[in-house]
Design a protein that fits this description.
Nucleotide-diphossugar_trans, ten-stranded mixed β-sheet, Rossmann fold, hexosyltransferase activity, globular, 4 domains, 31 helices, Spore Coat Polysaccharide Biosynthesis Protein SpsA, Chain A, seven-stranded parallel β-sheet
Length: 842
């Protein structure tokens, strides 16, 4: 049996995580938040244990991570393992003085395992949190771990995905495969383990002072049939260094050999079939009614601030998400405390953006079964003393409203809407808001158009709806402070070439294929015109394929998700919006603030912001409900956009005047200051009980029909099962899209004709690359009968391609990993290649 390094290897057999933009400098613990949480119950529920050896230069940041935890019911035991520097020991005394939950013990040097064991023996709780003195944890890590283990009583430990930082930077997100863990330690030392489980396996083994003691521990737990929970978010940060214990082992052949023998002696007894609980998991609720947990501790947040819980679907790129982000980023933190709960499995590309402004962020799909979400929300409202629950674009949140109103008769419950969607559930969230309007205190909408529709079509009370239009940060989106030409230089085009910006989520709703048609026609008139398509989404693979098919790569440039948006506006001459559905697109505000005219479809409330002084709105020649997914557009509709863009660009004097009007329109009516001040006034009115009378009447009604509120929510969960399963699968398969995009014209293989292979095939077909896909099987003839529409090869084909220096991508079904790995190693040796950037396990 071949063993790899106990720590993160430089060339793992898996590609490291999804290729998302990640800020490795945004480390937890850089500052102490000082939230002054109220802890009325001094009895801890978890014990953090930290072995410590001359780690004074790191412990402050780790301590900040501990003190910043949103779940304050812990004790922190630090064991000084014979530190030789007095200054490093003195730092520990300061921590004890700073917080009474810190306890320090001193012992002679015995290695990390020895230090941890001493801490475990001194602990007073049933949950042990392993945290080294130089590693970091997200502020919500303890809270997520506590409740994931409480709701999975048979699991004995839990861990999260991790961020590597310092010497090397990477995202570490792997599926849990026991057979692979026996040979390669893809886990970190940071975890939460039941004390009873540790006692059963004899704690950490202290026979070898410097070894892979954490890897050894995981295998000992598995040997006893104890499985973990894998929380699907980046909750831990592992500091990469050469002078740490693992660096010492990896760089010393003698220590390395002993450490591997140490692991081998237990790995041979581990059952390969043991599986972890890995989130997100499909909802199999089976008509279970909503429940709540017993939580009798005092709220940890005082009454000094107005406390708002936002229930939203996700934290990804989009107009509604931008609206939410602007709200939490700019609200007065001295007067308002905002928390966020999300309810749809997602990559959460913008999570870090929200984390800059919000401490309490919980993606329920990453650490809880769906049946426990309502209980966590119930607990959260009680544990924080929430004043206002605001729901935006979360179906789960909407259908929970009657139950929340029954359970919390005195809090304010409101919603925030951005558009109606007739193609989806007969109006989308607007329809649901209409139905629940009698229970909501108030509804907020981002356009006058939507308010009119809510009143006239969904029969809402006009006095209970308020318009708060989005605002733009006029100081951030200021053309005077942005250097021109950087994006053009990035793609190698000249400063003089005109650019049309298409910035959105690449989704059917935005009609991106119409954008391609417009680009193709416009370049016939303006030969040097360029289109910048910025954003990700489910249609991105198809769009790129279509652009290649039409040989438009020199005209249309794709950029994926970007954060430097002002640079794109600065280098663009016109912003194009051709959606079939919008409220008011956030990019409309941003574009105008940057002095860039907008050509838009006459959709939603775009007309409220765009007139002929700043661009134009054009009629939609498709019907939303009937033609939503139709990518074939009339010549008349295509040419009207071409004509409009050409008209704006041809007169430079008129264009200059239009640029001035764009900026002026924002400064006069749509700044971020106006937006935030309006929201803050509304929140304070809600907290003061402005609509208390309506709530009191509803309370009497719900006393008569408590079961109806429960069942209303239950039926929704069953109806929403398929959509949740799709979202959960998309999270698991999302990295495939990014790897395929890298592959370009490389051959893509699926090895392992299982359900995972079939799902991957469906995903690849959706990306419109099925022509490059084939299967690999040791018995091609047998496998060919399962997938007769695609070619099936023997593993020999990989060797041939590799010898020709054509690296393929190979997706492997998890159940086939070990049986296939030996074949891959043999092929790699023969072809003299490293497979590290070619493989992905499903």
């Amino acid at each position: 049996m071949k063993f790899n390094s106990g720590r993160i290897s430089e060339h793992p057999i898996l590609i490291k995580g999804a290729n998302m933009q990640f800020n490795y400098q945004q480390q937890p613990g850089r500052t102490l938040i000082n939230r002054n949480l109220i802890i009325d119950d001094k009895e801890p529920l978890m014990t953090i244990i930290t072995p410590y050896y001359n780690a004074g230069k790191f412990i402050r940041q780790t301590a900040n991570c501990v003190f910043n935890q949103t779940f304050p019911y812990y004790e922190w035991i630090i064991v000084n393992d014979g530190s030789t520097n007095k200054e490093d020991v003195d730092v520990l005394d300061l921590l004890v003085q700073e917080d009474s939950r810190v306890k320090v013990f001193h012992k002679e040097n015995g290695g990390p395992g020895s230090g941890r064991n001493m801490a475990i023996r001194e602990s007073t709780t049933g949950l042990i949190v392993i945290l080294d003195a130089d590693d970091l944890i997200d502020p919500t890590y303890l809270e997520c771990a506590y409740f994931t283990l409480q709701t999975n009583p048979d699991a004995q430990w839990c861990y999260s995905d991790s961020v590597g930082f310092n010497k090397a930077e990477h995202l570490w997100k792997y599926p849990f495969i026991t057979e692979r863990l026996k040979k390669n330690n893809f886990l970190l030392s940071i975890a939460v383990i039941r004390k009873s489980a540790l006692a059963k396996v004899g704690l950490y083994d202290e026979r070898v002072k410097h070894a892979y003691e954490d890897w050894h521990l995981w295998l000992k737990l598995l040997k006893e049939g104890m499985y973990p929970v894998h929380m699907n978010y980046y909750g831990t940060w592992y500091r990469k260094s050469d002078d740490g214990v693992y660096g010492q082992v990896n760089n010393d052949e003698g220590k390395y050999g002993k450490a591997i023998e140490f692991v081998k002696e237990v790995s041979k007894f581990v059952d390969d079939t043991i599986k972890a609980i890995e989130y997100p998991l499909a909802n199999n609720n089976n008509f279970k009614k909503p429940v709540s947990w017993t939580w009798d501790k005092k709220a940890i947040l005082g009454d000094e601030k107005c406390k708002i819980l936002m229930i939203i679907p996700w934290m990804t790129v989009g107009g509604a998400d931008s609206y939410n982000l602007d709200l939490v980023a700019n609200i007065d933190k001295s007067k308002f405390e905002v928390s966020i709960i999300t309810t749809i499995p997602s990559q959460s590309e913008w999570r870090q953006k929200f984390e800059e402004h919000v401490t309490d962020i919980f993606d329920l799909s990453t650490f809880l079964h769906v049946e426990n979400w309502c209980a966590f929300i119930h607990y959260f409202i009680k544990s924080r003393g929430i004043d206002i629950v605001m729901i935006s674009n979360s179906y789960y949140g909407y259908y929970l409203i009657p139950w929340l109103r029954k359970e919390f008769p005195n809090i304010s419950i409101v919603d925030c809407l951005h558009m109606e969607e007739w193609y989806w559930r007969s109006g989308g969230y607007a329809r649901t808001s209409g139905v629940l309007g009698d229970i909501l205190d108030r509804s907020y909408v981002s356009t006058e158009h939507l308010k009119t529709l809510m009143v006239e079509y969904f029969k809402r009370n006009e006095t209970e709806i308020k318009v708060i239009k989005s605002g733009v940060d006029e100081k951030y989106f200021d053309p005077a402070i942005i250097k021109a030409g950087e994006i053009k230089a990035e793609v190698g085009i000249s400063f003089e070439e005109p650019v049309v910006l298409y910035l959105c989520r690449m989704h059917q709703q935005k009609r991106p294929f119409l954008m391609i048609d417009i680009a193709e026609e416009l370049r016939k008139r303006i030969q040097n015109v360029k289109f910048f398509a910025v954003g990700n989404g489910p249609e991105l693979g198809l769009l790129k394929s279509e652009v290649r098919k039409r040989e438009m790569e020199n005209t249309l440039h794709f950029f994926g998700t970007r954060t430097d948006l002002p640079k794109f506006y600065k280098d663009s001459d016109v912003t194009l919006i051709c959606s079939i559905k919008e409220g008011i697109a956030v990019i409309t505000y941003e574009s105008l603030a940057m002095g860039v005219p907008v050509v838009s479809s006459d959709v939603g409330a775009q007309r409220e912001l765009i007139d002929d002084t700043v661009g134009c709105v054009l009629p939609i020649m498709q019907e939303e409900e009937k033609d939503f997914a139709d990518i074939h557009y009339s010549e008349i509709e295509i040419l009207q956009y071409v004509d409009a863009i050409e008209e704006i660009l041809k007169d430079k004097v008129k264009y200059g005047e239009m640029q001035k009007e764009c900026r002026l329109k924002i400064l006069e009516n749509h700044t971020k200051t106006i937006f935030i001040n309006t929201w803050q006034k509304e929140f304070l009115k809600l907290k003061s009980g402005y609509w208390k009378g309506k709530r009191e009447k509803l309370n009497e009604v719900f006393k008569l029909i408590p079961n109806l509120a429960d069942d209303y929510f239950t039926i929704f969960l069953e109806m929403n099962l398929a959509e949740f399963q799709y979202s959960a699968m998309s999270v698991r398969l999302r990295p495939i899209e990014e790897f395929i995009d890298k592959a370009k014209n490389r051959q893509v293989f699926i090895w392992g004709a299982s359900n995972g292979g079939k799902k991957t095939l469906d995903h690849l077909r959706n990306a419109n690359i099925s022509g490059t896909v084939a299967f690999i099987d040791n018995d091609p003839n047998k496998a060919g009968s399962l997938f007769c529409e695609l070619p099936v090869y023997s593993p020999k084909v990989l060797e041939e391609l590799l010898v020709e220096d054509k690296k393929p991508f190979v997706f492997i079904g998890s159940m086939y990993v070990e049986s296939i790995k030996s074949s891959l190693e043999n092929i790699g040796l023969k072809a003299n290649v490293d497979f590290a950037d070619c493989l992905y396990i499903l």
